[in-house]
Write a structure and sequence with these properties.
Elements: E1 13-16, H1 18-21, H2 27-40, E2 48-51, H3 101-109, E3 113-119, E4 122-123, H4 124-128, E5 132-133, E6 141-142, E7 147-148, E8 159-162, H5 169-183, E9 187-191, H6 207-220, E10 225-228, H7 238-244, E11 247-249, H8 258-271, E12 280-282, E13 286-287, E14 290-291, E15 307-308, H9 313-326, E16 330-333, H10 341-346, H11 350-356, E17 362-365, E18 373-379, E19 389-395, E20 401-413, E21 418-428, E22 433-439
Parallel strand pairs: 1-2, 1-16, 2-3, 3-9, 9-10, 10-11, 11-12, 13-16
Antiparallel strand pairs: 4-8, 5-6, 7-8, 14-15, 17-18, 18-19, 19-22, 20-21, 20-22
Helix pairs in contact: 5-6, 8-9, 9-11
Length: about 450
């Protein structure tokens, strides 16, 4: 029997192209990032290489100078069954019907895993032009016969939703995941589905499409991690996310803004009871180092494209620490070959990353003695007072805080790799954190 949780027994760790490349990434850049990961990050648990949005559009980014991220009714590349295929001008190895298989094979040869982004639904121009879909019994069905023109993204014009009540609607999703299995895809991020925020009175309007996608993955015969975006995920639907998906975004797009990072503590507290066993509420990507190259006008000088991440060192540590103890999936958002020494050290700290793989659930501890001090704890092993545990202390205020405590345990500072004894006094700068391992 298919076990969807088995493909993500621990939170997935990897890299996603979006935060740096936006819609522009090409095969050469994907290979460069994969090669960097294989050489520098794989030994620390990083393994997924994920191509984000618009990989089928040969003209992606060509209207950046007009402030347009997604081209209305763009004629992106489709096969004979209305399924998106890579644009060969951007992914040359996909030519002649090869799809992403050559690139996936290369990434697998590096000991890594391969992922892609899709929008939910079926291409609008396939529906408008009555293009065929693949059916299980050979019946002639066209895209317009399963499309729901009243269900579409408010921010991307590419797709109509698929109407689950229509005959052969499931066949369309079965066909695209059959194709992804043939390519060797290990991870699919589906967008405009976790929260269909075009419909504020019905943010979970794509519930049936989630079910169809999950059934299609099962039928494909390949273990594929299912990631749902964007957030915020609907907490009342936690049971549904956990039944059908492996990851779901608990926030809208997360960027290098302290206000967004501070707000994540409340989001994690809301979702802390739903983490584990192949189910991973997702805090979104880890923006760091350099960002935003793909948002610059297409004719801008390369030296003027993108920006240096706005997070301070302390804020970046706070982000990585919260994501790790909460056990969010970890997806790096930057251009990996440009990582500086400090950034590389932050994401290869095995003592911090071990929290992310800890099988015990973490929980937020209220601390009324210190305003704006938040503590997260996670036991290691069975629930027993003699067992070791993690403790992460965060200063969310704008002032330095002094924290003192004595404990019967031996304390190790996981960021500094130092044993501290059992009595600790720490000074936490604004937006800073400490991560401790307490051992008997």
């Amino acid at each position: 029997m298919y076990d969807k949780n088995a493909v993500a027994l621990v939170p997935p760790m990897g890299w996603n192209s979006y935060d740096y490349y936006n819609t522009l990434v090409n095969e050469q850049q994907i290979r460069a990032n994969a090669e960097y990961m294989a050489k520098n990050l794989k030994q620390h648990g990083w393994e997924y290489v994920v191509i984000d949005i618009q990989w089928s559009d040969p003209d992606a980014g060509n209207q950046n100078d007009k402030g347009v991220q997604y081209i209305p009714f763009s004629q992106f590349c489709l096969d004979e069954y209305s399924r998106q295929i890579p644009a060969p001008n951007r992914f040359p190895s996909s030519a002649n019907g090869a799809g992403f298989k050559p690139l996936a094979d290369y990434i697998h040869s590096l000991g890594l895993k391969f992922g892609i982004h899709i929008m939910r639904g079926i291409p609008r121009f396939a529906a408008h032009n009555h293009l065929p879909i693949k059916t299980h019994d050979g019946t002639k069905v066209t895209a317009n016969m399963i499309a729901n023109p009243y269900s579409s993204s408010r921010w991307n014009p590419d797709m109509y939703g698929v109407d689950a009540s229509k005959p052969y609607a499931q066949d369309y999703y079965d066909s695209i995941f059959e194709l992804y299995a043939q390519w060797g895809v290990d991870f699919v991020k589906v967008d405009d589905i976790c929260n269909t925020n075009a419909y504020p009175n019905n943010p979970y309007s794509a519930e049936k499409e989630i079910e169809m996608i999950a059934h299609a993955i099962e039928k494909s015969g390949r273990g594929i991690v299912l990631s749902l975006s964007p957030g915020p995920a609907v907490i009342e639907k936690a049971h549904h996310y956990k039944r059908y998906a492996n990851m779901w975004r608990i926030t809208d797009d997360f960027w290098d803004d302290w206000k967004l990072l501070k707000a994540m503590f409340e989001r994690c507290e809301v979702w802390q009871e739903h983490v584990g066993d192949g189910n991973w509420p997702d805090c979104d990507m880890l923006p760091m180092n350099v960002l935003g190259y793909g948002w610059a006008p297409k004719d801008a000088d390369d030296s003027k494209k993108g920006w240096k991440c706005n997070f301070t060192l302390e804020e970046t540590r706070t982000m990585i620490t919260l994501w790790s103890i909460f056990r969010s999936p970890l997806m790096i958002g930057t251009d990996l070959p440009q990582l500086d020494k400090q950034s590389l050290e932050l994401i290869t700290n095995d003592e911090i990353l071990a929290m992310n793989k800890n099988p015990s659930r973490a929980y937020q501890v209220s601390n009324s003695c210190h305003e704006d001090i938040v503590t997260w704890c996670s036991e290691i092993g069975n629930v027993d007072e003699t067992q070791s545990f993690y403790e992460c202390i965060f200063n969310l205020s704008e002032q330095e805080k002094t924290i003192k405590f004595n404990t019967p345990f031996k304390i190790r500072d996981l960021w500094e790799h130092k044993d501290l004894g059992s009595s600790v006094e720490i000074k936490l700068p604004p937006h800073a954190c400490k991560a401790f391992l307490h051992r008997p």
